[in-house]
Design a protein that fits this description.
7-stranded mixed beta sheet; alpha/beta; 13 helices; binds pyridoxal-5'-phosphate; Aspartate Aminotransferase, domain 1; 411 residues; 4-stranded antiparallel beta sheet; Aspartate Aminotransferase, domain 2
Length: 411
């Protein structure tokens, strides 16, 4: 079992106070805090190994390259990818989705084609498809959700057809914490000849994700939500699919040869191998090394233990919150259907006022749309307050949160 009190010792920021109260950080779906193992790995890189990768023959560059490539290998193991080449380092989940929208959808799809999303998607899994669909004329369609925020699988089965070339869906909703059944969706997509893109921004940090068992074609996630630094994230893709794809951005690192042709007065270019073909320019080397440290940290805790810890905390929080009279909780009350994210409202109060009230007591939560406006629209909500847990959160913190909510109810 995971001991959050032992884990907390690794997170320097948790020692600080906010407004003279001990910090309670419940905004983990937005970004996570960083353990000293990640901070130290990044400092060590800059202090001892800093150089550019894949370019020079000197010792520092060799060391930096080795570390950077090892980071790809460790991430590949974490999600059980077959090959380290299937791991592309990008800025975050957002860039990973854009990469596929621009490198794949923009080139492969036409007016007769369709992409299926769901109404629970984060804006990053909506906007890139809407933008590229306007250029190429393919259709973007949205699978409905039920009133508790769970996916309507019957609607998915009805909407999918031979026109569907990709289903792009989040594994876990960043608003309700609803967990989608990826194996089931993969089966539906593949039986209909469509590819499956999974937005794993809210799942990879919190639960076991096995791209082979789940038969995922593309997976996106962000380092900063899983104890790593900002500015680094991952696009996983099946090797055979990535090898067929053209690059997203052009520049150094992603080419094999650029040859000037005198007669034509222009350059002919050949692409580098996967994954470097998709990592144009100097990459976020230190970020990759920080992500490797984060992945190792999570592996040491055991991702199954992380999941169980958050599930226990969620169960406890839902029970305690339902004792309160002015609180409305959204999403399924059945804890097997959700992760450690709880959206709620306090009757008569705006979500931002709820968040500000809690901030006065050192409790950090998110308020607003959480970049998922269509889901709020579908559920008839103008906005929500949201608590989201991670490895360092405790029941004691939940008790304090409930205490302040009770005080708020008296206002
Ligand atoms: C479900 C989901 N997808 C995508 C993203 C985008 O992640 P990033 O901003 O790190 O690119 C987020 C961030 O909150 C998210 O929750």
């Amino acid at each position: 079992m995971l001991d959050p009190y032992r884990v907390r010792e690794d997170f320097p920021i948790l020692n600080r106070t906010v407004n003279n109260y001990p910090l309670i950080y419940f905004d983990n779906a937005a970004t996570s805090q960083k353990p000293r193992q990640v901070i130290e790995a990044m400092t060590k890189f800059y202090q001892e190994h800093n150089a550019n990768v894949h370019r020079a023959v000197h010792t520092l560059s060799q060391e930096a390259t080795e570390l950077y490539e090892k980071a790809h290998e460790e991430v590949a193991k974490f999600i059980n990818a077959r090959h380290a080449e299937e791991i592309i380092f990008v800025r975050g989940a957002t860039e990973a989705i854009n990469l596929i929208a621009y490198s794949w959808a923009l080139r492969e799809l036409g007016e007769d084609d369709e992409i299926l999303l769901s109404l629970m998607e984060h804006h990053s899994n909506i906007v890139p498809w809407e933008v590229t669909s306007k250029i190429r004329g393919f259709k973007v369609k949205y699978v409905d959700v039920n009133s508790d925020g769970t996916l309507n699988y019957k609607a998915l089965e009805k909407m999918i057809s031979e026109k569907t070339k990709m289903v792009s869906i989040s594994h876990v909703s960043n608003v309700t914490g609803v967990i989608n059944d990826i194996e089931r969706i993969a089966k539906i997509a593949h039986e209909n000849g469509a590819l499956l893109f999974v937005d794993g921004a809210q799942s990879v940090p919190h639960m076991p994700v096995d791209v082979r068992d789940m038969d995922i074609d593309f997976l996106a996630f962000s380092g900063h939500k899983m104890l790593g630094p900002t500015g680094i994230g991952v696009l996983y893709g099946k090797l055979e699919l990535l090898r067929e794809m053209e690059p997203f951005q052009g520049g150094g690192e992603m080419i094999r040869n650029v040859t000037y042709n005198d007669e034509q007065g222009r350059c002919s270019i050949s692409w580098n191998d996967v994954p470097w073909r998709f990592e144009a320019g100097t990459p976020n080397i230190c970020g990759g090394i920080g992500l490797m440290a984060a992945v190792n940290y999570l592996r040491n805790l055991g991702i199954e233990n992380v999941f169980q810890h958050e599930r226990n905390l969620t169960e406890y929080t839902l029970k305690r919150m339902s004792e309160l009279s002015r609180i409305r909780i959204y999403g399924p009350m059945d804890c097997t259907k959700r992760c450690g994210i709880i959206p709620f409202n306090v009757d008569g109060l705006e979500s931002h006022d709820v968040a500000l009230f809690l901030d006065n007591y050192g409790i950090m939560i998110r308020s607003g749309f959480h970049c998922a406006q269509p889901l709020h629209q579908r559920l008839g909500l103008s906005s929500t307050a949201r608590v989201s847990f991670y490895v360092y959160n405790t029941r004691e913190e939940v008790d304090r949160f409930i205490e302040i909510l009770k005080e708020m109810e008296q206002v």
